[in-house]
Amino acid sequence: MDKTLRIDFHTHVISEEFLNLAEKYNDERWPILEKTCDCGANIMIKGKKFREITDQAWDTETRLKDMEEEGIHIQVLSPIPVTFSYWSDPEKGLELAKFQNDFIASIVQKHPTKFIGLATVPLQDTKLAIQEMDRAINELGLKGIQIGSNVNGKNLDDEALDEFFRAAHEMDVPLFVHPWETLGRERMPRHNFMYMVGMPSETALAAGSIIMSGMLDKYPNLKICFAHGGGSLPYLLPRMDKGWNVWPQIRKTEHPPSHYAKLLYYDSLVYDENNLQFMIDRFGADQIIAGSDYPFLLREAPSGKVVDTLTTLSTEEKQKIHGLNALRFLGLDIENYQPLEKVPHEEGRG
């Protein structure tokens, strides 16, 4: 019987009673939720459909059923990135962040053995962001913060954000970076390229900004995980190392980029055995965390499917990627999160 603890680190959730700030503040830039039926809804922005979602995004019982069927013991819940709304007035952004954090905390409170929660913060104002981070972690009991890959066009190494990263370092709060407002999105209206090309490129830019900035020398205990396998970062690292070597005037770090890339974490959502092996070769198995992007269409089902089919991994390495690395990243004790006796979903298992 397989007793591997299986945690899906990358999942998204939204309240069925999502705040309608577009109506409250007479500003249609706010994302709103329009139900289409009991089992579906559209996220709307500026009167246009941004994306379709199903009740898996808000119905906890549906989510628990899916987890049971797919052999997932625990999901880590985070908001849908479009709701970051960093463009907004900071106090209004804080209002939405508090609503979402309270909602996620309520799910965790009802099902403490099945869910772990990540919070969101109004990163357009670092003082408010730190204030809400403190509340989310120390009052609500959430275990980390999900942030966007840029803040109104500012890369994550922008000096205006340094105060937030310093606070996360001092408070030992892990950060999960998810792409949003993607690089070059004005060139990607067709083919759904925002999801297929824009997000991986955006993620690489976010990770590269942190790697090249010297932040990881300055804050050596800062824990950061990047979605979607770090996007295109693994492939770009040799080019970044080359640039670091030939342009000494740009250097802000003691070591080349590839050194710092191994200090970061990445989810396993790359769909392909060769890509996952490439990530492991670049970063090491200890830095990879299984995540699916549940409940969206581009998700891996079940979470960690490619991890199980990769024959080069030992049982110990698979156990790390499936769950132990997530617990270590989040600073949680394995003794409090034991796997169930149920045999996991067999489809795609190696």
From TrEMBL:
Entry-linked Gene3D superfamilies: Metal-dependent hydrolases (3.20.20.140)
Domain Amidohydrolase-related: 7-332
Superkingdom assignment: Bacteria
InterPro entries for the chain: ACMSD, Amidohydro-rel, Metal_Hydrolase
Listed EC numbers: 4.1.1.45
Keywords: Decarboxylase, Lyase, Metal-binding, Zinc
Pathway per the UniProt entry: Secondary metabolite metabolism; quinolate metabolism
PANTHER family: 2-AMINO-3-CARBOXYLMUCONATE-6-SEMIALDEHYDE DECARBOXYLASE (PTHR21240), 2-AMINO-3-CARBOXYMUCONATE-6-SEMIALDEHYDE DECARBOXYLASE (PTHR21240:SF27)
Similarity remark: Belongs to the metallo-dependent hydrolases superfamily. ACMSD family.
Subunit structure: Monomer.
Official protein name in the record: 2-amino-3-carboxymuconate-6-semialdehyde decarboxylase
